[in-house]
DNA sequence: ACGTGACCTTT
DNA sequence: AAGGTCACG
């Protein structure tokens, strides 16, 4: 049976691309509530589904390493769902880096070097992590405008926005209302298992593609999701999928990428289960709207606590008006990449990452030489 | 246009 | 009560 890849074991073929940890931190970026499709399968190794393929990612100080599994490693389903031909034994990548067998045994025979595939997969990663955006430069600009950001970003470097598939992003985010990350994780997993195409199985874990719009739109879906403990969100998912297909078409969501922020936001808000917060999340996380700032109760706390944000003091809930005001406040402070800045502070406030704040400068001594002094 | 509850499920 | 939305007043 196929197993999850581990870099040090050398049992699988790995490839890499140059990427400093200050530009990308997998542990923070993949577990901060943007995507619910990744889990840590070994220390520092993250396995998940992206672009219809199963990946394991890990990183060293200067490199992002990746292994892509063959979808046909799945045993026991039909064979007509494969998007990917059997290419599993490349021994060398196009940049000449090798990491097969590490320092250990080398059982596998070299077969072929398919640099077309290499290029395609590397490009998928660059797109998904938006590596064209230079995070170091962005942090520097944001830190200059906002001392609090600078303090937080010092510890939480490498948090970046994913560029997710719009369908996956929208329907995952509809699940998030009145909910916690841990529970959403399970819900999305059950959703894919019930309605998505199987891709492969690794160490007792099966991986599934995210369901298609037509699968989500089927009339039987609401009852199915009720059974899977989606509660009142079950009908939101089915009705939104149906509404998109009936009144807009398959390409509509992706088309919102080339539409201005507020227009895309309003379009999303016509869908059941999609209000201000979810619409802004989808805009930011999948539609290239870097200025979208999702406002939830948590972000509201941050505004009040860290920025002395006074408006709406006696309020119980976030009204439309308050939502607009807080969003504008942050956009004015941070500029066109306000959404990216918000994600850093949001991540830093997650309870799972609190311990990072306690341990002092243990490993960041070297890269901060260029900065001016600080207390 | 702005401000209150009900809503599924789990801690 | 929780990382919200919808349907009223």
List the helices and strands and how they pair.
Layout: E1 15-18, H1 26-29, E2 38-42, E3 45-50, E4 53-59, E5 63-68, H2 115-128, H3 135-145, H4 147-155, H5 166-174, H6 181-195, E6 198-202, E7 205-208, H7 213-217, H8 221-227, H9 233-247, H10 252-255, H11 261-269, H12 276-286, H13 297-307, H14 320-334, H15 338-349, H16 355-358
Antiparallel strand pairs: 1-5, 2-3, 3-4, 4-5, 6-7
Helix pairs in contact: 3-4, 5-12, 8-9, 11-12, 14-15
The structure holds a DNA duplex (11 and 9 nucleotides).
Summarize the model shown:
The chain is α+β, with helices and mostly antiparallel strands.
Describe the structure.
The chain is of the alpha+beta class and 375 residues long. The protein has a single domain, classed as Hypothetical protein, domain 2 (Endonuclease III, domain 1, Orthogonal Bundle). 41% of the residues lie in helices and 10% in strands. α8 runs antiparallel to α9 and α11 crosses α12. The protein binds a DNA duplex (11 and 9 nucleotides) through residues 33, 176-184, 226, 229-234, 236, 272-278, 294, 296-299, 315-321, 346, 350.
